[in-house]
Amino acid sequence: RNMSSAGPEGRKKMRECVGLIDSLVYYIQGAIADHEPNDKATENCVCILHNLSYQLEIELPESYAQSIYMQRRNTSSSDKTPGCFGTRSRKVKEKQQDIPLPEEKSNPRGVESLWHSTLIRIYLSLIAKSTRNYTQEASLGALQNLTAGTGPMPFAVARTVVQKANGLPGIRAMLHASHLTVKKTAVSLLRNLSRNTSLQTDIAREVLPDLVSILPESVPGSDIVCETTASICYTLYNLTQSSSHNARLLLSADGLPKIIAISMND
Predict the structure, then answer these.
(1) Which residues contact 70 (CB under 8 A, 6 or more apart)?
(2) What angle do CA 139, 143, 149 make, to 5 degrees?
(3) What angle do the packed helices 62-73 and 152-159 form, to 10 degrees?
(4) CA–CA distances in Å: residue 31 to residues 20, 117, 140, 149, 181
(5) Environment class of 69 (CB within 10 Å of its CB; exposed 0-12, middle 13-18, buried 19+)
(6) pTM to 2 decimals?
(7) Which end of the chain has fewer surrounding CB within 10 Å, N or C?
(8) Residue 87 DSSP SS3
(9) How does DSSP classify residue 70?
(10) DSSP letter (8 states) at residue 107
């Protein structure tokens, strides 16, 4: 667990270590099957996988990168109408090419497991079943890492979380966790997920009222709470920028007074 946070070279060596990732996934699967999601070893395994998923899209070996991005090279983005923030908004939207990954391998090995739907479902299961804060945070953090980029992998993972694995209810529960870092990581994950335009209706319906409810009435003093607040505002912006229905949801949840109070503070 310590070595997995040693930096890019350490992550690279550990990802290349034959059998290591497979063993970690195997152990966690066994723990969940035995209804023991709270043991320390499971926490360690998830924390390692969380670290190994950091900047995965950027650090993938060339062979994987070519396979994942093969379809993307043949896709030209059409010109779109600028949003409220002009060219910046348009560029952000142009990055959101919902290009699926090549068909998933039924029996992934090594680094392939890190973005496979099997492990995504394991993370969601731990979020729902574990009561250990570090295990919850690491599971949310791994999903946050996997959805952080702008390529086909992050958006394929986002679709799996939201639509295929029904992960939003578990993530929504973490918005109300007493542990501030767990809450912050859950919001950061939702911020990533909300960039995918095809998922925004589902996300708004499931979690927009909860996001408004945890939005503070004024600018918070704590750095963690301040960062969480900024991520909530960013998520609400993503959800409402091109949907009048979601904007009405924000209004009906009484989100506007809170946003105005926050925005009037330096």
Answers:
(1) 102
(2) 155
(3) 80
(4) 17, 18, 18, 30, 24
(5) middle
(6) 0.86
(7) C
(8) helix
(9) H
(10) S
